[in-house]
Fold this sequence. Notes:
By secondary structure, the chain is mainly α. 74% of the residues lie in helices and 5% in strands. It has helices at 2-31, 58-66, 71-98, 105-140, 152-184, and strands at residues 36-40, 46-50. A hairpin with a 5-residue loop joins strand 1 and strand 2 (46-50). Helix 1 runs antiparallel to helix 3 (71-98), helix 3 (71-98) packs antiparallel against helix 4 (105-140) and helix 4 (105-140) packs antiparallel against helix 5. It starts with a helix and ends with a helix. This is DUF2975 domain-containing protein.
Amino acid sequence: MKKIVWMSSFILSLLFFTLISLLVTSIIVLFSDSNVLSFTQSNGAHMWIGLEVSGSWQGVAQTLNEHGFDSVLWLGLVQLLPFILINIILIRLFLLYRRGSFFAIENIQCFKWLGGVLLAQFALVVCYPSLLITLLNLATGSDIGRVVAIQDTDIIGLVMGLIIYVIGWIMGQAQQLQKEQELVI
């Protein structure tokens, strides 16, 4: 039990660090003139913090940039939303683990929410760029074009979301069976 509490505390510290870095990145994008803050030292060390649009949305980002739109603002921040939600759900789950709660209803809900967010992320990856381009075409009267791309990492996210959701569902069924068994005895 002590190992689980210790490991949960360690993972929680990493999750909080990740959540803070995601929020700082969002603030930089929203309130800075640049999407990236860069720091260079005299010894040649270079560090940057910021946001780039990556994955299957790179083609859409390039198209938006070519037409004068800020792709990081239109796509990058939206790309961060599922990651922020996933971090919050995992923080909740590992707080429960640290308290010694492993198969409670709250844990099951965390698994279902986590699977649901991963499934929603896939839907977002598939639908949002096309919807955004269509709305921008209607609003500006231009023809930006359409770019739809799905990468293998998106499909892996879909499969992982389904697996995690089913795990939560099975845990719920197991808990229901345990309650019914306790009533029989």
